[in-house]
């Protein structure tokens, strides 16, 4: 009986250790988050989630990426991460044409890759974690239609060629197709420099008559603040601006009234869930890493993990400001 009791005690102790993660994880496990623009508050929030999951699992997290929008520089960071032979890589695809070869090379080298925020479904990544960008674009387009007068003119600021922003633009156009009196008169590529949005908005805000711009929508994280500043300086401030993401400046713009609303994503959740999912793949690797699991009805992986989207306006902006303050 003493032997049985002792064995049971040992078994329970081992089980507790496994459940707590002590036996499963190690700081020698290194996971990378490769971002598209590390200077943005958006990616700093994603890094918080990534690091929080790493701390819980007691593994090593490394967040890398260029300080500005530069797909080639992001590819360089990806290649460096692959050379370090990590346990897994989470990456946002700034430009699929540039990054796809690097993603495929990582998988060929035996490194699990999951895309986050911006996807490349043609690559050999396992799956995508992030926003339903098409539906998020529709949400923004519907907000414009709700707030704009008849026969309104709209300007779109975006990052042309980035998969997620291209999907958002499709969604905006889809929503506005039900309102033929509202016209998108121009789609402006800021090319990763939000100052372009400010300069262009200042010029456009000076137009009157039939050329007057009634509304703006910014499909990237940084341009909203710039257009908001331009509206604040304009003589006629009666314009509708829909921004993207919930950076502090954007939320303050909603409070002040220069921004009507913003489409909120969940970058913290993307980073947090992303590391946890990479950990699962590392500890339970598939027989074939480079398989297209989207066409496998018995796949252990989803095609897409939707982290959620919401609309922020004056009715709920204080909730987002409070949440941001709590995570500083």
What does this entry look like structurally?
This protein has 328 residues and is of the alpha/beta class. The protein has two domains: 26-131 and 267-308, Rossmann fold; 133-264, Rossmann fold (3-Layer(aba) Sandwich). It has helices spanning 2-20, 41-57, 71-83, 96-108, 133-147, 163-176, 195-205, 223-233, 248-256, 267-283, 317-326, and strands spanning 30-34, 60-64, 88-91, 113-116, 128-130, 153-158, 183-189, 215-218, 240-244, 261-264, 304-306, 310-312. The protein has a six-stranded parallel beta sheet with strand order 2-1-3-4-5-11, sandwiched between helices. α8 links the parallel β8 and β9. α3 (71-83) packs parallel to α4 (96-108) and α9 (248-256) runs antiparallel to α11 (317-326). The longest helix has 19 residues, at 2-20. The chain is elongated. The termini are far apart. Mean pLDDT is 92; it is low at 1-22.
Key attributes of the depicted protein:
328 residues; alpha/beta; Rossmann fold; six-stranded parallel β-sheet; six-stranded mixed β-sheet; 11 helices; 12 strands; 16% strand; disordered N terminus
